[in-house]
Design a protein that fits this description.
Elements lengths: L3 H30 L3 H27 L19 H28 L3 H31 L3 H11 L13
Bound molecules: MU-OXO-diiron (FEO).
MU-OXO-diiron binds next to helix 1, helix 2, helix 3 and helix 4.
Length: about 170
């Protein structure tokens, strides 16, 4: 059975994951309108993955005797300066998500809720992979600079790439 405190923290995390999904959906749509079809495909997939992260939390809260709250969401940013701007925003967002997750993990230890602590480890690993991937993509974009050919190849490479690291699986 979840304590009220842990239930509230997990519900706050539901909102964070839902907001991530919306934010990446807006980025995907921007990319699609710019003709960056690979980037758009990558971000649409990333948005779907964030929705799965949210769903995994919703189901866990309900299974553990709590009540998952499906949140209202704010309008995400819809205009971006460049593809680099997108991935910088994405990394900034993910580092904030990591802090939120660490906060939940910390609370689980304080509350001695080892079941939720164990459940949250999946998110801890996921954050390491997502931040690393975002940093790699930003490094590549910095190398490419204003080279249009490089950008074309970058976008093409993203077409088949998933935000979910290999072997991590889906919730
Ligand atoms: Fe749900 Fe981007 O971590």
């Amino acid at each position: 059975m979840l304590s009220k405190k842990i239930e509230a923290a997990l519900n706050a995390q539901v909102q964070v994951e839902a907001m991530s999904s919306q934010a990446y959906l807006a980025m995907a749509s921007w990319g699609e309108n710019q003709g960056l079809s690979g980037t758009a495909a990558f971000l649409y997939k990333h948005s779907d993955e964030e929705r799965l992260h949210m769903l995994k939390l919703v189901k866990f809260i309900n299974e553990r005797g709590g009540k998952a709250v499906i949140p209202a969401l704010k309008q995400p940013s819809t205009s971006f300066k460049s593809i680099t701007d997108i991935f910088k925003s994405l990394l900034f967002h993910e580092t904030k998500v990591t802090q939120e997750i660490n906060g939940v993990v910390d609370m689980c230890l304080k509350e001695k809720d080892y079941t939720t602590h164990n459940f949250m480890q999946w998110y801890v690993s996921e954050q390491i992979e997502e931040e690393a991937l975002a940093r790699t993509l930003i490094d590549k974009l910095n190398l490419i600079g204003n080279d249009k050919g490089g950008l074309y190849l970058f976008d093409r490479d993203l077409q088949g790439m998933s935000a979910a690291p290999a072997g991590m699986g889906h919730p």
